[in-house]
Amino acid sequence: MKNIRNILMLAALAAIFGCSNNQQSESADLATPVSVEDVKFQSIEQYESTTGTAKSTHEVTLSTEMAGIYKIATNPATGRPFKLGDKVKAGQVIILIEDNEYEYGIGIESQKLNREISEQEYEKQKSLYEKGGVTLRELRNAEVSATTAKYNYESALIRLSKMKITAPFAGIIVDLPYYTQGTRVSSGSQVVSLMSYESMFMEINLPEKSLANISTGLNVLITSYTLTNDTLKGSIAQLSPAISTETRTFKGIISISNPELKLRPGMFVKADIVVARRDSAIVVPKNMLLSSGRGKMVFVVDQSTALERRLTTGIENQEYVEVIDGLKVNDRLVVKGYETLRNNSKVKIIR
After folding, report:
1. Is the pTM for the entire model greater than 0.85?
2. What residue spans define the domains of the chain?
3. Backbone dihedral angles phi then psi of residue 147, each to the nearest 5 degrees
């Protein structure tokens, strides 16, 4: 009888422990798998975004000032005639206009020689006047002759310079209309266009409500829709104080630094004006925020339990939002698997 009672007690204990293990196994199976990250301080910026067309700060189209035979100058950097995309230095000759008859008519060498003779005669007359050898009138006549010869020579140089099309600034050839080498072109023919775009600008129009947030000097992040991986730096250079009565916007100009020439004139770009910045803030991705009637919230994990955290938020951008209250550094923030959680849900952390 005693053995029978012992057997029954062992059977009862086995049943109890077996039920407990099953419950623990079921509880583990019901835990929601989640991924977590430790909350840390980081920087965040808030933007006022707009779009526009990037333009070069210097651009010019050069035309001939006289008729003559067309010839493209040789690029010293390549040893061949200039072509589209070539860089030029300020003062460098790009196009030559040749006309022998015109050059002979200028007589530049004769003008130069006449200037030298007139200057020598004036110096001679000045020396004689100091010794009483000539009158003041004779000295003045020599001075007039020297001055006239000087002006004639400089005028000849100006006329001769019209036979060369030179770059007024360092830049890049962006247009080079085709003319057959050796053919005659007329005066006023457009022969080359230059641009300098190491620094650029764009005109913007901002809504009236942004007037209080935008000021000159603010940093701007520039991205092109064709060069999405490159971000350039700019700043607000000018702002109009006037509001358009038709569009309810005000005009501004952004200067853009483009030292590597990645941005090209005419590109359509996006400008993110930095209107606020926090260098050390608790920041969470916006797509992780859950909304309810009581506001925004996230989940954190404490000892395998998901806990709701109601948030007070600050500045934000398209991807992130600043958390002013509701999270602290080193909280274990649920970053995956939070969609189906409830307060006090059991969770299992996975990688």
Report:
1. no
2. 31-43+280-349, 47-55+196-279, 100-162
3. -65, -45
